[in-house]
């Protein structure tokens, strides 16, 4: 797995970034507004750096670079609001190189040199002779389709009619049918090249919108760190910081969808065409929402032209709308996924990013599948459940015997060395199979803490029972009055001879009714700041004074409230130093690779698709044939893809020890929020059958709706994760006291 570009590609990115920082400042962007949104000097400078030769084949005098080099340019162009139809020029120059031959050699040379602008008409002019063309107000020629021909339309100056528009871009409405045209090529191969150019444009435009959106967030965050209201920086207000944190997840998801699309093209993946359209739809929607929220952060000043944020707001809408309604892209995703629509795809070139987990990961996955096929009975599988109640002792023992129960633990504990990517594959495989209880994660974390901080007694008495699968552990962090604020714990541990006496209450002690031990966070010093006066203990749940009371949720889960009344544990069952509980907790971070709920999200979409094939629509045909149903399934699947990519990035950064910038919290936040919103929509789409708990997809979809609500709460609420993202990734001030 890799989320880094090559050194050569980084040089390409830095070269364009430095040039655009100097030559596409917001002052220069404003000046270009008076020139129909085009900056000829900037255009020539980009040409000098090879921008318009990047995608032109070497045989035609170009550089023959791949899509990744092009999107690196486009993200910087979006970040700096570069003036002119750059995406259109890149794909048009490539088409001239592929189809033009000797007849257009001189024009192509001038395009590569920045002396002429060529752009693209997206619609067949036999059906739509008069159409809006991005860059049409400054283009010397337009590449277009006419039936089964690809033509080059010459645009005289008299036909380049600039007019006032939303963001002062050089868009123009042109009647292409009345202008002189030269046939470049005809037939299926020519049409395929043109169609591929449209797909390439989608990726380039999606990336430009990512760059624009990222810069909008940077400007809004910087302003929120300097603007005060009511005596406080506005960045401390969650009403300001939390929407920006949400949008950062969306923006990064958009970038990663583009990366997925290019990787899919290179791999010949059947999802490639759908992912291209999904990437532009999501980028367009995200850019519009980001531009609005970023401007809103500036308050009334955002409405003035004194601040630059309005430029980003307007171009966020104007750039993608040159093609028409972006919602049509989501319909296209639906057709490509569920109606068999195909598309011609561009050549990807060198693709540095890779989302494959590797050979070891594949071997681990195959081994787990084989174990379950051989040893797990249908009766055992019937007990599987995503909650703690899904623990099956026989399965625990089987996994432990094969050293696969805790793949996230180091080799010295499990006796088996497993790489980080293979650990990810093991977790993914168990989720695919349906054996996904939280017990393994919590118990593995406790085992690691005992290994690092435990006494010889704990290591000899408790640790082997956990590692063998004989015992599982519960988590005693939350309390009735503190919830996610675990450092506010009030359950007391007071020295009593060589023992500690524990008194208090823990809430949401899930699995306590099944577990042998609870990892307990207790207050041992009330006279110091709350995070400094905490100590960690292992408490046997069968100890005298422990009471476990069930609490049932509407998610088909059982959790517990646990009471501790004069519970005594020996000092040897303490983990770490007295008042050093926070440091002890940090050991668990080694097992935190980020991630979310994309597996169950995927299964949810597949269940909804199954129901759409079963349910008859109003016209009597299967609901899956309804474009509205296809679109809604496509939207949910787009969210799955983005969630998966954000999760992969978090895992990669953890395994490779790369700076995380809140990648883990982003993965959890985005995935859980999308899971919740899509579960609602898919429940609606497949109603009233989805109301049923009859065995199969209906019951599963019904369960997903209930399950999703918990994912935004446990493991830290979405609000906690939004604050972490705002602070770590956007540099905003703390939003909590």
TrEMBL record:
Classification via InterPro entries: Acyl-CoA_Oxase/DH_mid-dom (IPR006091), Acyl-CoA_Oxase/DH_mid-dom_sf (IPR046373), AcylCo_DH-like_C (IPR036250), AcylCo_DH/oxidase_C (IPR009075), AcylCoA_DH/ox_N (IPR013786), AcylCoA_DH/ox_N_sf (IPR037069), AcylCoA_DH/oxidase_NM_dom_sf (IPR009100), Mycobact_Acyl-CoA_DH (IPR052161)
Keywords: FAD, Flavoprotein, Oxidoreductase
Acyl-CoA oxidase/dehydrogenase middle domain mapped to chain residues: 475-552
Span of domain Acyl-CoA dehydrogenase/oxidase C-terminal: 202-337, 602-729
Ranges of residues in domain Acyl-CoA dehydrogenase/oxidase N-terminal: 6-86, 359-470
GO molecular function, one term: oxidoreductase activity, acting on the CH-CH group of donors
Cofactor(s) in the UniProt record: FAD
GO CC annotations on file: plasma membrane
Family classification: Belongs to the acyl-CoA dehydrogenase family.
Name of the protein described by the UniProt record: Acyl-CoA dehydrogenase
Annotated organism of origin: Novosphingobium barchaimii LL02
